[in-house]
Amino acid sequence: MRIAFFVNAIESETSYYTTTSLAIAAIARGHEVCYATPGDFVLRPDDSLAVRVTTPGAGKPKSADTFIADLNEKANLKTIDIREIDVLFLRNDPSLDADERPWAAHVGAMFGRLAVERGVLTVNDPDALAKAQNKLYFQDFPKVIRPSTLISKSLDEIRAFIDSQKRGVILKPLQGSGGRHVFKIKSSKESNLNQIFEAVSDEGYLIAQGYLPDAVEGDVRLFVMNGRPLEKDGCYAAFRRVPAKGDIRSNISAAGTAATVKVTPKILEVAEIVRPKLVADGMFLVGLDIVGDRILEINVFTPGGLQNLEKLNGVDFSSSVIESLESKVKIRQIYGSQLPNAVLATL
């Protein structure tokens, strides 16, 4: 099986990324992996779709650091027909390209659709990813698992919403990731609200969410695969993201730390509520960020933290993800194009 990981840029990949763990797990299971980036697709006059892929050096890597070094220094570049790929795994973050390379932000979903039309299993399903380019996608899920939310570019609307929330609000860009430009606002009368509004609104619409008191301990990142919590050897793929002292952001990329967490019936109930839509949308692997009985965010593009989980719990979750892809490829070989990509993605 050949798996192509679609990422923002080869040079920005790191040893601690979840994509790296998945790639190493695939190689360990005897598969070939390669990487593609937004500028690598070619749609030719005969309507064939080609892609230039970067393949790491031959052999099983000794470590994640070795793998990344080989990917950057010893990689082979070649252009192949998209049909030579069994799985196209879309793992790019559109928000990282939104400012400097806006043309690149939606390439994964665009060419992912073309790959699907040519028989390539593509996860997560590109049609659903096209609808999830920003946090508006989250608003399609049941209200019972969402905090009170306002989306607007009007400072007056935002002030009024803040006044309606006794515990304050979290204000952030509608399209963003990694904890960038995330602020806690306690009162609409805060002296720096205008400056915060200007800083965040430069990136487009703002999303304001009622603050959840339990967030002071961070949030729980729960991986969901095929619509159900990822579990192996009796251990759930979940960890608590603890914010740094004096910071409201629990993102690991924003100095948050990972800690073990007990997955409670309440957490499982929240996951069960979102399961039907995740399955219907063909969302193969996602990360739910949960506080209490609410979800703050659903990461459908680049859910990260598998390496943290594997170190904390000594469980190889990455292999379970690859094993699931193996099963889907076998089903595709039997059924051909009879099963839509979105259906196959979450079987």
UniProtKB/TrEMBL annotation:
Transmembrane segments: none annotated. Keywords: ATP-binding, Glutathione biosynthesis, Ligase, Magnesium, Manganese, Metal-binding, Nucleotide-binding, Plasmid. It holds the Pfam family GSH-S_ATP. Its EC number is 6.3.2.3. It comes from the Bacteria. One of its GO terms (molecular function) is glutathione synthase activity. InterPro entries: ATP-grasp, ATP_grasp_subdomain_1, Glut_synth_pro, GSHS_ATP-bd, GSHS_N, PreATP-grasp_dom_sf. Gene3D superfamilies: 3.40.50.20, ATP-grasp fold, A domain (3.30.1490.20), ATP-grasp fold, B domain (3.30.470.20). One of its GO terms (cellular component) is cytoplasm. Its cofactor is Mg(2+); Mn(2+). This is Glutathione synthetase.
